[in-house]
Amino acid sequence: MSAAASIDLRSDTVTQPTPAMRQAMAEAEVGDDVYGEDPTVRALEEECAELLGHEAALFMPSGCMGNQVAIHLHTRAGDEVIVEASGHSYDYELSGMAALSGVQPRAVIGDRGLLRVEDLRPHLAERPYYRSAVGLVIVENTHNMAGGRLVPEEDLRAVLQLCTDSRVPVHLDGARLFNAAVASGDSPAALAFGFDTVMVSLSKGLCAPAGSLLVGGSEPMREARRVRKLFGGGMRQVGVLAAAGRVALATMIDRLAEDHANARRLAAGLLQCSTLELAFGHVDTNIVVVDIAKTGLSAAAFCTGMRQRGVLCLATGPTTVRFVTHHDINDTDIDVAVKSAGSLLAG
Ligand SMILES: *Cc1c(COP(=O)(O)O)cnc(C)c1O
Question: Quick check: 176 and 285 in contact, CB under 8 A?
Answer without folding.
Answer: yes
